[in-house]
Amino acid sequence: MTTSAELIEMSERRSAHNYHPLPVVIHEAHGAWVTDVEGKRYLDCLSGYSSLNFGHGHPKIIEAAQEQLKNLTLTSRAFYHDQFAQFCAGLGDLTGKDMILPMNTGAEAVETAIKVARKWGYEVKGVEPDQANIIVMEGNFHGRTTTIVSFSTDPEAHDNFGPFTPGFRLVPYGSAEAIRRAVDANTVAVLVEPIQGEAGVLVPADGYLGEIRELCTAQGILMIADEVQSGLGRTGQTFACDFEGVVPDIYVLGKALGGGVVPVSAIAANRDVLGVIHPGQHGSTFGGNPLACAVGIAVIELLNTGEFQARAAKLGEVLHARLRELVGRGVVEVRGRGLWAGVDIDPEVATGREMSKALMARSVLAKDTHGSTIRLAPPIVISEDDLVWAVNQLSDALYEFSQA
Ligand SMILES: *Cc1c(COP(=O)(O)O)cnc(C)c1O
After folding, report:
1. pTM of this structure
2. How many domains does the chain have?
3. 281 and 241, same domain (yes or no)
4. Which atom of ligand 1 is the closest one to the Cα of 196?
5. First vs last C-alpha separation in the chain
6. 112 alpha carbon to ligand 1 midpoint, in Å?
7. Given 44, 226, 368, 386, which residue is catalytic?
8. Are 223 and 189 in contact (CB under 8 A)?
């Protein structure tokens, strides 16, 4: 048998070093638990950055995928296929929107929203040719394409990837007033994460999303909510925008939409917006393929039960109550909503990376983001006992560091 150490060495030798994985080599997984090649089990508290909201190998999702694999996997959009209509109708109903444009990855869905907003700006709003601007937030994470990294404020994501795409205006996250000041006659959209995930699970003050909604409506600007990570049950609601009763003009969805099986992303919007796209103007060979749609339909059916949203809300209370007890005991601050938390470790106690490794040694898989923040986002199917156990491991690891 090839050992973890050997597989890691071989992986590092022959792959680009665009990630810095924890030294664990996973072989199989069910629910919230993964097993490595040596048979050691770990509790997954990352969920593929919230792609695995329904857990590893959810029976309904796997069954849908297996059934579809037997029949049809790809047609391209040159033809219709028998999973497409139901996927679009289901996602349209879930979002309350008229139309769906399916893609594959989150970044592609964000690119789609940007293209749609610009085209809408020229053709509906009447913006001067090539003058459209989109207001974006400092600390944003919307993916890795050249256009998207053009407006990233993370030097790692941005630097040396120019020349950059113009047409974006950065404002501080959390300030509706800053958006108001940045708007001009050529502003076509505000692109916002309702909760900034990669930035460390930053939850804006109550009222922020509502103010953006009002401002966009008043000024004739599209509100684009990137719910790729915050959406689909993670926060205890279907969408993080639901907490403020806000409905954006465009939802951007991905990650959990593919059930942890295949990449599935989409934007959802009404006809007055998405209707600007005509044949040949945008697309993707794999976007909306039969396997993706079959998996997406299964995901939408799970969400339509409401069970996952309710469970994330209930377990989220347990998680946040336990985490709050750690503030002042090696933890500086805890943020988040539902089954999603950003835990700032006191940099005097440990770096985020050191804490991730200490948790791994204690059979909990979590990943640091930006310095000393640990992100916790276990699959929503996690048991309450396992969740409490995971926080206890964090608590014990903090204690161990403080003794060292
Ligand atoms: C992960 C993420 C993306 C990008 O998704 P990919 O599938 O990795 O391209 C976009 N927006 C947000 C908020 C994300 O968390």
Report:
1. 0.98
2. 2
3. yes
4. 13
5. 36
6. 13
7. 226
8. yes
Show the domain range for 289.
59-304
Whether residues 138 and 52 fall in one domain? no
84 as an active site residue: the answer is no
286 annotated active-site: no
| One domain, residues 214 and 71 | yes
Which atom belonging to ligand 1 lies closest to the Cα atom of 148? 10
Pick from 140, 201, 255 the residue to mutate for probing ligand 1's pocket: most ligand atoms within 8 Å of its CB.
Answer: 255
380 in the same domain as 337: yes
Among 20, 13, 48, which Cα is nearest to 34's?
48
Task: State the DSSP H helix or E strand holding residue 102, giving kind and residue range, or none if neither.
Answer: strand 99-103
- Cα(243)–Cα(237) distance, integer angstroms: 7
User: What is the CB < 6 Å shell around ligand 1?
Assistant: 49, 105-107, 110, 141-143, 193, 197, 226, 228-229, 254-255
Q: How many residues does the chain have?
A: 404
CATH classification at residue 147: 3.40.640.10
Give the domain-ending residue among 304, 323, 357. 304
Q: Are 332 and 193 found together in one domain?
A: no
Tokens of 83: 């999973």
* Residue (of 376, 314, 315, 338) closest to 234 by Cα position: 338
What are the mean pLDDT values of the chain's consecutive 10-residue runs (404 residues total)?
94 96 98 98 98 98 98 97 98 98 98 99 98 98 98 98 98 98 98 98 98 98 98 98 98 98 98 98 98 98 98 98 97 98 96 96 94 95 98 97 88
**Same-domain status, 27 and 105:** no
| The ligand 1 atom nearest the CA atom of 197 | 15
